[in-house]
Amino acid sequence: xxxxGPNRDRSINLSGSFFGLLIWRHLDxxxxxxxxxxxxxxxxxxxxxxxxxxxxxxxxxxxHRIRLLFPDESALQYPKPEAFCNSIPTWEMASINIAAKxxxxxxxxxxxxxxxxxxxxxxxxPHDPRSDPKFDGPFRGVKAHKFxxxxxxxxxxxxxLHEGGAYIFDFESFSxxxxxxxxxxxxxxxxxxxxxxxxxxxxPNKTAPSVSGEQLSAMEMERRMKLLREDSELQKLxxxxxxxxxxTESEFxxxxxxxxxxxxxxxxxxxxxxxxxxxxDIRPSIxxxxxxxxxxxxxxxxxxxxxxxxxxxxxxxxxxPNKMSAKDFWKKYCEADLLHKTKxxxxxxxxxxxxxxxxxxxxxxxxxxxxxxxxxxxxxPTLDMEADQADDYLHLPGHGILHGxxxxxxxxxxxxxxxxxxxxxxxxxxxxxxxxxxxxESGDIMAVAEAHVMSKKGSSIETSDKxxxxxxxxxxxxxxxxxxxxxxxxxxxxxxxxxxxxxYFDSQQANALNxxxxxxxxxxxxxxSLSLEESYTYLIKQISEAKVKGHIDIVEPDxxxxxxxxxxxxxxxxxxxxxxxxxxxxxxxxxxxxxxxxMDHWTLIQELLRHFxxxxxxxxxxxxxxxxxxxxxxxxxxxxxQEIKESVHSDCRHLVFxxxxxxxxxxxxxxxxxxxxxxxxxxxxAKPNGFFKQx
Amino acid sequence: xPQVRIVAKxxxxxxxxxxxxxxxxxxxxxxxCEAVLRYLPPLAKxxxxxxLFIESPVTAKSMEEWVLPEALSKHRxxxxxxxxxxxxxxxxxxxxxxxxxxxxxxxxxxxxxLVQGGTLPREPMPLSxxxxxxxxxxxxxxxxxQWECFLLQLINSSQAERLTNFSTSMIKVFQRGILSSRENExxxxxxxxxxxxxMDTNAQLWYIIRxxxxxxxxxxxxxxxxxSFLLELSFHTLGEAYSMNSLTDVQSKAIxxxxxxxxxxxxxxxxxxxxxPTKLVTNLSVSLSDSSSRKQGFVMVETNFRIYAYSTLKLHxxxxxxxxxxxxxxxxxIVGAITKESLYAAFENGITAxxxxxxxxxxxxxxxxxxVPAVPENVTDQIRLWETDRNRIEMILSHLYEDxxxxxxxxxxxxxxxELGGLLWEDSKKMRLIVNGELHQQMRDxxxxxx
Amino acid sequence: MTSVQTKLYSDDASLVVVLIDVNPxxxxxAASGVGGGVNHSSATIxxxxxxxxxxxxxxxxxxxxxSNQVVLIATGINSCGYIYDSGTKxxxxxxxxxxxxxxxxxxxxxxxxxxxxxxxxxxxxVGSNVSSLVSGSLSxxxxxxxxxxRSGAIxxxxxxxxxxxxxxxxxxxxxxxxxxxxxxxxxxxxxxCVVGMQNSAFLQQASYITGGVxxxxxxxxxxxxxxxxxxATDLQSRxxxxxxxxxxxxxxxxxxxHKKTIDMGYVCSVCLSIFCKHHKKCSTCGSEFNHVPQNPxxxxxxxx
Lengths: 695, 451, 304
Known about the structure:
heterotrimer; B: alpha+beta; Arc Repressor Mutant, subunit A; 4 domains; 15 strands; C: alpha/beta; Rossmann fold; 2 domains; six-stranded mixed sheet; two-stranded antiparallel ribbon; transcription (chain B)
């Protein structure tokens, strides 16, 4: 590897999801700026990464030339940004994602987030997942939109609602704002022309769309489809009932609201954590021909850098975008990193002297150092930290971790590189364990940086030194407690007083005896006709008899045989009944086909019964019809079950009977209820519960 | 792992191998029955006990009724054993259903035992005659000394300070499996001999006894008599004196040999002489897996492969020499080291790593015996590693087949050999194959079969 | 090779602690029943025959394995006591079956005498329902087994065999349950063989919980055969065998007020007494319940 001096020409290839916006915002001023059509088309598929195709740009040459490399440069001719914005209408399904701040009034600073506009609705997702105004509104609820003039102080867009109230968004630049403005304008125009009535009726709804009727949003539909796809059993049920018209779509789903809800929750709940690989793994790639060194920074890596190196994070917040652009920042960072990696101490020192920003990256991370100091204070006072001091093998030759192909043994003289291996390892481990508190997918590097600030505020509990000290002392006290100086530790308890234990246990015994089939007959207590004296005398007599007799009559051969036979019979008869898990084994003993069929029927019956019983009491004609339909279906299944019962082979008829019986019973109960209800209704006459019986 | 050919524990196989008549005669003694019963596998013991008072046959099927399906193999082992030893007799039915019935002789003896207990043919002598008997400790010391002396003589006649009264021919018999003596050469321990030395005392004893009994016919003694006498002896009370007068000729001859082995101690009174059973003999009826006869251990192994053996016995140093390099010998301490060379020498002699390790474990000094593991792991691992180093080449007796008449025949033969799992090598071009020698007969049959 | 890896004890070596019921009332009554010509001669067993079967069983246990150990504990109505321990005799006692049995009988006689005197000292009210102190002898057995556990790493596998005749004594419920649980904790199975008229609920639970065998032999004149074929089976062999099991133990509780078996009921939060109806006050411990809950049946009324 060649050491590269500070003056070497270098390109940095930035690629990754939220860099698209970064570039858009910061680089449009610098001339050449372009997007591929594919990249834009991806915009309307939110789950994929935005701008996953690299973007090429060539800013004004500064000290270093930075190129964002594009794989096949020659093939593409790109429209200008304005052209791209104007061309949106040609894509009917297009949607746009733009970073913006949401404001409730004009004066307040606003909440940073991403505004997403699609044909039907617009959504705003703040970068910090915990802040409140995450909302989702249909364009149907929008009355009009206003905007500030180009070149005025702020790039604002005001979306006014029918019901009153408005959303105000503050954009980074006017060009961005204009894209949104145009989009809203078009959508509104379209809505008003197509279905003005609908707009009137529509109730603006900030949360989920109403599920009433069969008019379901595409999203809702999709969610249901997805559920059905994932769960074959559900699909079967759906096919069986909804397709055949026994249940309506909404009835079917009404009992499964929790599934739908869960599906929604799952979307937001789960996040991947940090990778367990070290940051060190962002290795520069070198092409042999030139002296260029490429760093590949992805959103994830940046997120991780922020998490692991709070000083870099702080610097980012300080410098970007006021002092330098994000790209410059990362370039600096990468330079520093490279210097650090290559151990070019002299160069690093020189560079640091020359460039204070660069020096910042090379310095020790003082935030971390502070944290460490805090942590050391909190260490258990009884812990002997010297005990394992000698276990540090890092200074020995032949130990360490491979960094970029070279062994990274720490170098004690070098102050700059002293924050190395073990510290990095520890910090990394801590961050990975802490987990990720925010979405990286939200798209904007600024957003990530800010979200880190928020999460830190939330998580770091500033405990005062005082309480901490006290805690430490308590801990020390607890640890050094001498057992023999302590009084006996006994939980205060009151002993249980029971008036008459006989009362208590008699019942237990009687119960147990009942279960044994003794019925308590025979004699429950010993016949006391004999006196104690007599009894003892008998015992003694018997003992001496035993002595005299010897053991002549231990057992007669024929009796012994009888006993053994009895035991054998008992065993062979019980053997077949004693099974570990009765239900499972009963099922397992059936042929697979019958088993599957029975299980299918069982799920069907369950579903039907659930609907059946939930329709009582019948208060509307609708319910009445539903019950009728369900009853029909149940009757069908009933017949099928009967058929199974009769057709099954005699070997397992008993087992099948055992399984089918409870199903039949459940159905019978439902039929009985139906009959009873029907009779009551006809007896009462025309208007039970205020509805007419139809037919 | 090489096969261990010295298996001393199958003494009962010898009993089982006796002709039925003799076996039934043996079973007239309650002690034999008891000893046999104790040798049975646990399941067989249960079967024997439950049949004890049943005189009519019980079907095999009803016995199987008790057995869980996964333990059927154990059941079979148990019943096979019972049948081998003629504790159960199989009674074939016309309906092909096998039934078992207990051997009436055995049954009678056992019933008698339960009711009256076994009666020895001789009672201990009253103290008035013997006046003082050795204490149990003395007796044990005597037995151990006697036994070690015998062992030393067995492996190295020149080292023994005191020779036992065994005739050289007897010693030769014992040495048969243990030493290989060639002309003009000092006898060398064979592979079996090393293994023998590493076994625990009880196992060694059984081996010697077995040799003693099998060679008895050459001396004109009925092995049945010896077996029953030995088993009977094992039920005598430790430390009591029994009169020599109660013995038959055969027995009194045998008892002298047994005294040489340390099984009994002979004493001469004014008028009478008597013998006192030692622990060695009373432990004979204990199944081999019960080694309550265990002596205190004496070996400590350090992680640096050094061995410290607190022992005054020459025998111990002889044994240690088998697999370690003895460095110092002090009055009560032997210091050695396990080295690669010493172990290779041991492996050369057919001692396995497991044997060495288990020897070290079993004889661990009480101080280290409590620890787990008693022998440091690095030492045991290294011993095993050195052993596997040697076993990189495996010798398999095999046959080469060539000159096949046609490709088809060759392929059929190689397929057949592969099916049997014995194909070691084949060369389809030259139509040659090498097959495990054990399968030669089958291969031959296959090749001769008319196609 | 097994010859080298010898284990200290073979797997079937067991320590069996046998508890015998020496309840004078029961045995005398049972005998008088037989004398009175009650038709089921196989349903009762004279004490002498019971003893002989039991002693033969003990002997056969020591016969099976040299390291088997047998301890006999007598359960009286006033006391319990160790009768015989084969371990103290050394291992040479195998040829002395006669001595063993005569010693057992002698010690048993002494025990009965002592028990009788104790009863007189305490002025036991004659005619009250007298039950044997099973809890006491169970505790003795467990103590003995604990001692064996602590004597060293190598010991035979212990189990307890309870030969019970007289009916359960309800007042011992807690003590017996405690013994059962401590047996369960130390993995000691409790086998029970009931030679009395009634099944024993306590022992049934004991065997169920500890994984032992519960058996009430229907044919008592063949008692030895039951003992030999079922209870002599060592723990190792039990892994391979079906042993007679009762059809099932019903753990449903019965209410204290009407002694009905119930599936659902009210439980006193203080003493865990069970009632089928709501009470104002617990009849067992006297705790007062202040909250009157809704009748569980009312919910179903609302439904229809």
